Amino acid sequence: MAKTALLIVDVQNDFCPGGALPVPDGDRVIEPLNCVVARAIHEKWFICASRDWHPRNSRHFVEFGGQWPAHCIQNTEGARFYPELYLPEELRIFSKGCAVSGLSREVDGYSAFDGRDQFSMTLRQTLPFRGVELLYVAGLATDYCVKATVLDACLIGYKTRVLINCCRGVERNEGDSRRAVMEMMRAGAEISFEPYDSMVMRIPRVQQRPQPSSRCATIR
Ligand code: VGL
Ligand code: ZN
To answer: Least buried of 72, 80, 141, 173, by fewest C-beta within 10 Å?
Structure first.
């Protein structure tokens, strides 16, 4: 049976105001996200969450050659899920960015699909077991982990919806979140607004060729 999953990406203390790598207004995802979680529980969706879970000496950190201040270090307060986030008891947690060395993708672990649960299972292995076909993604940060997760989900072939009002971006460069949304849409993701998720935006499958603007048209 086709099923829906909710994937909550990295809603952790360090990504919220006061944390080590705060996403502007990161805590503002909590209220809409809690509504989504309530609905997901009610409708028996498969609910999972990813978490950034770095070793203290991760190459992802500036101190060890990476680009980020130290954040979400394993078993620290900063790595805990934001306390006001409503999470179900039977939550499946996928930890990522656990490698000290190795491939850059493993070290950074931006995508939740790079994470593993307590049984060392990946999302890619787990979701088919649940018959998941539709994946809702929300969390932090729009321009890094949400984007990487959504692009992977689209590539694997999930019908993927980004709950955009439950996401916030780091915005290292102004416009990063906006560009991330465009990239996700181009990959086939739909952008939706909870609780109004009948409002879904997507790029039509058949792209029209660009029309000449009226100004061009006058030049023969
Ligand atoms: C993230 C930067 C560094 C994220 C993780 O969760 O989006 N961003 N590590
Ligand atoms: Zn990180």
So the answer is: 173
- Dihedral sign computed on CA atoms, order 192, 193, 194, 197: negative
pLDDT in tens, 1-11: 469 999 999 99
96 noted as active-site residue: yes
What is the CATH architecture of 4-217? 3-Layer(aba) Sandwich (3.40)
* Distance in angstroms (rounded) separating the CA atoms of residues 136 and 154: 12
141 lines ligand 1 (CB under 6 A): yes
Kindly report, residue by residue over 135-189, the tens digit of the pLDDT.
999 999 999 999 999 999 999 999 999 999 999 999 999 999 999 999 999 999 9
Question: How many Å apart are CA 115 and CA 144, to the nearest integer?
Answer: 15
